[in-house]
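To whoever is on call:

I kicked off a structure prediction for a single chain this morning and the downstream step that reads the tokens threw a length-mismatch warning. I double-checked the sequence; it's 153 residues and nothing unusual in it as far as I can see. Pasting both halves so you can look.
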Amino acid sequence: MNSELRDLYQDIILDHNKNPKNFRRMENATLHAEGHNPLCGDKLELFLRVENEIIVDVSFEGEGCAISKASASLMTTFLNGKSLSEAMAVFDGFQKLVTVESEGDADFESMGKLAVFAGVREYPSRIKCAILAWHTFKSALDSGGNESTISTE
């Protein structure tokens, strides 16, 4: 990771940790899931309101490390307004971004600010922190409206 991307990574992580976006309990959610990363102690609840296959609102609550909270914050911002199929494509892209070496800048361009999380590849123990919110999101979709809980063990 070049120093410019590393600085951006640190700035974005710190900003979204201190000032998380969409950090609230949603009362009228159509999907809900809980996620837990026992390695780090991260816990979050994710709330989604989906109408006509479009994510019209998404929020989260919880506590955890800066990477986990920032990832959830950026995820909710990025997924709001996306169709479920678009959201799953972003899920797949994010998963690859944090676990597989990139083949150039194309991955970074398509992921927007989420690209800063490519830096967690350098810290394998932190990957689970970055993907917790994303796997909780997928669990919420897979549950079809039933309560679900996932763990990154």
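Update from on-call: the warning came from a stale cache, not from the record. Cleared it. Sanity check on the structure: The chain has one domain: 3-145.
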